[in-house]
Design goal:
Elements lengths: L1 H18 L7 H6 L4 H12 L3 H13 L4 E2 L2 E3 L2 H17 L5 H5 L7 H12 L5 E3 L4 E2 L6 H17 L8 H7 L14 H9 L8 H18 L23 H14 L5 E5 L9 E7 L5 E4 L9 H4 L8 E3 L8 H4 L15 E3 L1 H4 L2 E7 L8 E8 L2 E11 L4 E8 L5 E6 L2 E4 L4 E4 L21 E6 L2 E4 L10 E4 L3 E10 L7 H8 L5 E5 L7 E5 L9 E4 L6 E7 L8 E8 L7 E2 L19 E3 L2 E3 L22 E10 L3 E6 L11 E7 L3 E8 L5 E8 L3 E5 L9 E4 L2 E4 L10
Parallel strand pairs: 10-17
Antiparallel strand pairs: 1-4, 2-3, 5-6, 5-8, 6-7, 8-9, 10-13, 11-12, 11-14, 12-13, 14-15, 16-19, 17-18, 20-33, 21-22, 21-24, 23-30, 24-29, 25-27, 25-30, 26-27, 28-29, 31-32, 31-34, 35-36
């Protein structure tokens, strides 16, 4: 074993020596350290006579410490540490060695009392020692013991583990070596983090198994702590608690720290703007078994899961690095040139090429500017969110935007002092299928040399080198023509969410059963053969007789995810009743039939957590934790129809609400406000714009721009544009 480790170290050192000759400049950091300078010098002196990799590791960390600080200082109390040690012990005793098939049939109610006891105990704990917005510089705070421990452990675990990653120093110093991820307070040493999780996670070189174990561990820890009312942050221990005032940024920070301590290479990547919603998103990245870097949202998803769950909707993507990067706005901007906050750091690396097929765009412009940089923005609820940058070539009168992803709308801008100004029309570089000569997402870790260089000539995309047309790409701009008008028939203000669509798809095969004995003898009255629509709809039953008990169940054991259900009959048959909820009306030519049915009122049965929400007449609540819902009636009743509404976000047109239509013409312009009498809106004589935005003035926050083509809404970044096929 010692011989093997020695050989790895020799190879690693040789690889490094052959490819790296730069000398790190630690002088500036040492000067900024003040009284803590002696601690940093201890680190350099400790490794000065070690092998070159060890010394250069120390130099790399110290040189870049001047860019790092802790936003808040959070130090957990000893009582917190003792509490979570108990949680760890419970996990080992109950779950750690439980086979998966046993875990699936695990009866949670057996531990209800224990979980409530844990919640009460946690809620009595004192607050952690917290100092907010301290912005504590690493150079002035971290001790020699902390840094030496980090470097020694990083080198040691690098050689011990056998994950598939390259043996080069550039990879090591970003994926393994860092003692922090972004701005978290490092209240635990690498040794402490390693020892804390070493016996909780699988000791294997299979990264999938380790991450699955990590996901399972924290899933059960949060289950243990379901009754904990967390009011303050606890650093790394936030991972143990149900979500509260924290986001994926916090989870990603600490997960990366934990993984690196276990020898799992990990970095922090993010998108400043998702394409299908007005949100940022953060996640971890590690190499898979083939060495390809893959995203995942620890502790919720593992490798290969995150792409489908959210990152496929990322816009531009960046890596938060530990070491400074050179080809970024922080260094490229002019002396007095404003830099947007997102890019006012040297610790960013553009990774968009791994997530999208991208091109290098040479965008012509004629503005007389002194700026070195222009930017790309995305739509963010009516405002523009800066997401990318480009270098201005004054001589060639062009802006060079690198790694521009296809099929995303961008707004090119520049800054006059701090004022954002347009520099060109908003555009989409559109392709209706993947480009053959550009790598697909997650097929390479290295930017392709075959990346297309394109430029624009008279709103057409051509090859930058020879100006030959590129037929597979189209350049779409937002160009409103107010001399032409159109009529818009609108049904939604926000696209259908993918997760809600999935929930509806899981209702295929669901059945409505009926019986006069709750214990058995159920007859099948209805089978859902197609995916239900995202609105209230009616199903006719094959029902020959009256029943007291009606049960709606999924065929796959998945939660029903029903927001509303009601039972209709011609007569009450001894039961209380009311008027049915009207079905939606989507067009002015709709002929409403005379309602001859009544809604039979019954007593919802407890078939599982939240089962009653399907019958509470509130469309914003839903039964999402049970595979069946059931209604008991006072007397047997022959139900003829059911009306059901699947779980939804209520982003259709809501009768009784006021809406305002806006169109884009060098900025958002108000058109008209309409009151919705039904589930649609008809706007007439609207300026023919390329992009519209429908705002609900009464309620709801989710809104998203859309195109209107061939009498249909096509939401931006979500729906494929038919005119571009």
């Amino acid at each position: 074993m010692k011989k093997n480790r020695l050989s790895i170290l020799v190879i690693f050192t040789l690889v490094y020596s052959c490819n790296h000759s730069s000398i790190y400049n630690t002088k500036e950091t040492l000067e900024l350290a003040g009284e803590n300078r002696v601690e940093l010098e201890k680190v350099l002196n400790y490794f000065r006579d070690s092998n070159k990799v060890a010394y250069e590791s120390a130099c790399f960390l110290i040189e870049n410490m001047k860019y790092h600080k802790s936003k808040d200082m959070i130090i957990p109390d000893s009582s917190h540490i003792d509490y979570f040690k108990r949680t760890d012990s419970l996990y080992r005793a109950i779950f750690q060695h439980m086979p998966s098939h046993v875990l699936e049939s695990f009866k949670e109610e057996d531990y209800a009392a224990l979980r409530k006891e844990l919640g009460e105990e946690f809620n009595r704990l004192p607050q952690a020692q917290i100092t907010y917005n301290i912005n504590l510089p690493d150079a002035q705070n971290l001790s020699a013991l902390f840094l030496i421990d980090n470097i020694k452990q990083a080198l040691d675990i690098w050689h011990k583990k056998n994950y598939k990653y390259p043996d080069d120093f550039d990879f090591f110093k970003e994926f393994i070596l860092p003692y922090r991820t972004t701005d978290e307070y490092p209240h635990m040493t690498r040794t402490d983090l390693h020892n804390h999780f070493y016996n909780l996670l699988k000791n294997t070189d299979n990264i999938y198994e380790v991450l699955d174990c990590y996901k399972r561990f924290f899933s059960k820890c949060r289950w243990f702590n379901a009754y904990s009312n967390a009011q303050f942050h606890l650093g790394m221990y936030d991972l143990y608690l149900p979500r509260f005032k924290m986001d994926c940024h916090n989870m990603t920070n600490w997960s990366c720290d934990v993984f690196r301590a276990q020898g799992i290479p990990s970095v922090y990547e993010f998108t400043p703007q998702l394409t299908d919603q007005v949100n940022r998103h953060f996640w971890c990245v590690s190499p898979d078994s083939a060495g390809i870097l893959q995203p995942y949202s620890a502790p919720y998803t593992s490798l290969g899961e995150e792409w489908k769950n959210g990152t496929c909707k990322a816009g531009k993507v960046y890596r938060r690095t530990f070491g400074s990067q050179k080809n970024i706005p922080f260094y490229l901007a002019g002396e007095n040139e404003f830099i947007p906050p997102l890019f006012d750091t040297p610790l960013l690396n553009d990774q968009t090429y791994r997530y999208h097929q991208t091109v290098t765009l040479h965008l012509p412009f004629n503005e007389k500017l002194s700026n070195n940089l222009a930017y790309l923005c995305m739509w963010a609820n009516g405002e523009l969110s800066v997401v990318g940058w480009g270098k201005i070539n004054h001589q060639k009168k062009e802006i060079v935007y690198e790694q521009v992803p296809l099929n995303i709308l961008f707004f090119p801008v520049y800054f006059d002092d701090r004022t954002m100004l347009d520099i060109a029309r908003p555009f989409i570089i559109y392709a209706n299928m993947p480009l053959k000569d550009i790598p697909l997402p997650f097929t390479t870790n290295i930017p392709s040399r075959k990346s297309k260089d394109v430029t624009i000539i008279q709103e057409n995309i051509v090859n930058y080198n020879d100006y030959s047309p590129i037929k597979e790409l189209k350049y779409i701009t937002l160009n409103c023509d107010t001399t032409f008008y159109s009529n818009l028939h609108l049904l939604r203000k926000y696209p259908v969410k993918q997760n809600l669509k999935m929930f509806r798809q899981l209702l295929e095969g669901a059945v409505l059963l009926a019986s006069n004995d709750r214990q058995g003898g159920f007859d099948t009255l209805l089978t859902i053969k197609e995916t239900p629509q995202p609105y209230l709809q009616e199903y006719k039953l094959t029902n020959p007789k009256p029943y007291r008990f009606y049960r709606f169940s999924t065929s796959n054991g998945q939660p029903v995810n029903i927001a509303h259900m009601e039972f209709l009959a011609s007569s009450p048959q001894g039961n209380p009743y009311s008027n049915p909820t009207p079905l939606p009306i989507f067009h002015k030519n709709y002929k409403k039939k005379k309602e001859s049915l009544i809604r039979i009122e019954g007593n919802p049965q407890n078939t599982g957590r939240n089962s009653e929400y399907a019958f509470d007449k509130n469309i914003f609540t839903y039964a999402d934790a049970t595979s069946s819902i059931e209604m008991e009636f006072r007397h047997p009743v022959q139900i003829e129809y059911i009306r059901l509404l699947p779980r939804n976000a209520n982003n259709m047109i809501v009768p009784g609400n006021n809406y305002m239509l806006m169109y884009y013409d060098k900025g958002w312009k108000k058109f008209r406000t309409l009151y919705a009498e039904h589930n649609y809106l008809d706007f007439e004589h609207v300026p023919k714009a390329t992009l519209y935005w429908l705002k609900n003035l009464t309620e709801g926050k989710e809104e998203f721009p859309f195109f209107y083509i061939n009498d249909k809404q096509y939401f931006l970044h979500v729906d494929k544009l038919p005119d571009c096929e």
